[in-house]
Amino acid sequence: MFTVALFHQWRIRQLDVANAFLHGEINELVYMKQPKGFEDSTHPNHVCRLRKAIYGLRQAPRLWYTTFTKFLLKIGFVHSHADPSLLLLHRDDFQIYLLVYVDDILITGNDESKISNLIDQMKSTFTMKDLGLANQFLGITIDHTQDKFFLSQSQYAVSILGQAELHNCNSVANPSSSKTSVTHDGDSPCFDAILYRQIIGSLQYLTLTRPDIAFAVNALSQHMHDPAIHHTLLLKKLLRYIKGTIEYGLPITRSSLQLRTYSDVDWASDPLTRKSTSGFCTFLGDTLISWTVKKQPTVSRSSTESEYRALASATAYTIWIKRLLADFCILHFQPVDVYCDNTSTIALANNPIFHGRTKHIEIDQRFVREHIQNNVIRLLPISTTDQIADILTKPLTTPRFKDLRSKLTITSHSSV
User: Fold this and answer.
1) In the list 178, 243, 255, 394, which could disulfide-bond 266, CB 3.0-4.6 Å?
2) Region 79-93: what's the mean pLDDT?
3) 227 in Cβ contact with 408 (< 8 Å)
4) Residue 272's pLDDT is what?
């Protein structure tokens, strides 16, 4: 949304709903006990029937969303086909886009007066505050100039370091380690299991603007149930890396709206299960808009098989993004370039004949091949050196990591 708004030079305004869950209309029978301090002494065994939602009611978020979207649909909005949290209003020569996340709302479009009228309409129905230009959304700081946005979570990163009591630690240049840490029986863990889980949960939210730590967080998240000593050492190293990159974030620059995706995999990377790690990232022009790191659900018997599974996931996600952009009236008639560094996978995808040896990945194979034949995607080779998604699949040496981090466009706020 920010990338599209920047391309068209639209302003993005932010709204906040006060006591959002209290607006939810209940269309079913819901009873509750009489609240403490407000019991009816003449009818102590009676219960209350709820007419509207209250905080603590499990259905409250859904009821608020239903009530709010019902109001928007009544005045002409329609749901996005790709994302239920995005609603669109297209009339004559103006377009308005509204993104809702619980009680936080972003709104943009090509007609400021229509947007102001819409905000006044919403204020008359809901208790709502206009916060002006978006600058702080869901803990993400949004700095903007005329032709650039910069998304960062610096304050959130500082709070994580404070939680781990590492705000005065020395920084390191690489969040991961390609070598297993050597530990001894007498060594004590850097964090206990509870704190380990709390920090990892916080770091997962930090990856919203920091894809450079996505692989390290994903690897450490797989041991939350029973972290060993060397896992706590790796977590400490990751936090030391964050200490040195507090000001880093994700820039959004004004460029073309051409899609391209990079897909990669680290075959049999898990030493215990021998499952592979998939990673892919998508750019809209020069802006990184999505990325994924995920362990594959099954063991692959060859690197080609694991690459093909990753490619199928990257293709599905690219098609979803293409549908989402269509809601913003951005149509890609040319096939989207998808880059893969495995030549066997590319040859298999372009081969019209199905072999018995590929039967176990036939669904993925048919899915990718169909979209190649329909000119939805175009599969292109790329050298391993230039494969940007490599940073999402494995630990790297520091020079290689820094090179790919710059290609991901992750940079400090001062350099922007």
Assistant:
1) 394
2) 90
3) no
4) 85
